[in-house]
């Protein structure tokens, strides 16, 4: 199914997706919870990784989005299999380590695991935040290119904290977009996948774009879709996304993983890469490689 050449390209795109996610997180965190007009008044167009923001970050420091994704990645790589228990244990250890940030729904779900071992939160119509979608990338890489495994891993990790049909639909669509982009699909093909989501869940319609970029997964995905399909480069997609403000680190992280998978490592600005926390980037590159090696795509070689 994949030859050696294909697999090298997939590895490049996987690395770019993971690095792109961290860059979007670190870039967007500076303007998280600002409005688009506040960003414009303060920065013109915001385009530099400078830290600060409401979390008072160091330049290049990542937040919960990247850290929770790394929790999932380490659980898979260490066990060389899918273990939801290992994922939940890593989430729990992470929460106890007093992270710089943690969303309310994530905190609630992880606490329920710590208190009574609950691996699946009860269905909740209010738990439609973007906290499950933001961290799916390791499950996406490890399942490549199997769509059934993708759905299983992505939804199981989601339900530790977010059990909601709108969040689930966003997670599955994002995962499928990433599988397609990792295998080199063009934007027309990716657009068709989003059109399928919009047919089933019209709430995700992003044309005309309403300009909302909140932590509600519908607003988050509309913003990512709008800027990903409009942007002509990794940089354009990300700058457009984070300048919408609101949950900018998470819209940035999600757009960063998608644009990274689509455009590859060469498209990631060196100026941004150099500003990132070197230890985090080194771990991310190793994790991306090992996840692909352990995936059905990697094991077929
Ligand atoms: Mn965050
Ligand atoms: Mn956020």
How does this structure look, described?
The chain is mostly helical and 301 residues long. Helix content is 64%, strand content 0%. The protein is built from 15 helices and no strands. It is globular. The model has no long low-confidence stretch (mean pLDDT 97). One manganese (II) ion binds next to helix 3 and helix 12.
Low-pLDDT runs: none
- Number of DSSP helices? 15
Number of distinct beta strands: 0
Largest sheet features: none
Strand/helix succession: HHHHHHHHHHHHHHH
Distance between the termini: 9 Å
Q: Spell out which ligands are present.
A: manganese (II) ion
Percent of residues in helices: 55-70%
Strand content: under 5%
Alpha-beta classification: mainly alpha
The Rg value, from CA coordinates, equals 17 Å
Shape: globular
Mean pLDDT: 97
Provide a quick synopsis of the model:
The chain is mostly helical and 301 residues long.
Structural key phrases:
binds manganese (II) ion; single chain; mainly alpha; 0% strand; 15 helices
Task: Give the helix/strand layout.
Layout: H1 4-29, H2 36-43, H3 64-79, H4 84-96, H5 104-116, H6 137-143, H7 147-159, H8 165-182, H9 187-200, H10 217-230, H11 234-242, H12 248-263, H13 270-275, H14 278-294, H15 296-299
The protein binds manganese (II) ion (2 copies).
């Amino acid at each position: 199914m994949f030859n050696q050449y294909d697999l090298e390209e997939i590895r490049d795109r996987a690395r770019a997706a993971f690095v792109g996610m961290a860059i979007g997180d670190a870039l967007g965190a500076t303007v998280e919870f600002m409005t688009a007009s506040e960003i414009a008044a303060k920065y013109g167009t915001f385009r530099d990784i400078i830290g600060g923001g409401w979390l008072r970050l160091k330049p290049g420091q990542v937040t919960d989005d990247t850290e929770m994704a790394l929790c999932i990645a380490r659980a898979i790589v260490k066990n060389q299999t899918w273990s939801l228990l290992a994922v939940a244990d890593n989430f729990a250890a992470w929460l106890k380590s007093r992270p710089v940030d943690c969303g309310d729904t994530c905190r609630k779900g992880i606490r329920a695991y710590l208190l009574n071992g609950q691996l699946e939160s009860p269905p909740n119509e209010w738990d439609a935040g973007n906290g499950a979608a933001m961290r799916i990338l390791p499950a996406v890489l490890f399942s490549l290119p199997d769509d059934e495994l993708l759905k299983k891993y992505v939804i199981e990790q989601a339900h530790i904290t977010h059990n909601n049909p709108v969040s689930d639909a966003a997670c599955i669509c994002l995962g499928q977009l990433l599988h397609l982009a990792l295998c080199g699909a063009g934007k027309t093909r990716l657009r068709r996948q989003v059109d399928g989501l919009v047919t089933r869940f019209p709430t995700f319609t992003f044309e005309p774009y309403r300009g909302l970029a909140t932590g509600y997964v519908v607003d988050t995905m509309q913003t990512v879709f709008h800027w990903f399909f409009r942007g002509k480069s990794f940089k354009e997609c990300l700058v457009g996304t984070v300048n919408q403000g609101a949950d900018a680190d998470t819209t940035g992280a999600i757009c960063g993983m998608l644009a990274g998978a689509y455009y590859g490592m060469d498209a990631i600005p060196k100026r941004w890469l150099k500003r990132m926390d070197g230890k985090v980037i080194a771990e991310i590159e190793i994790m991306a490689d090992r996840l692909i090696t352990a995936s059905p795509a990697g094991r077929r070689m």
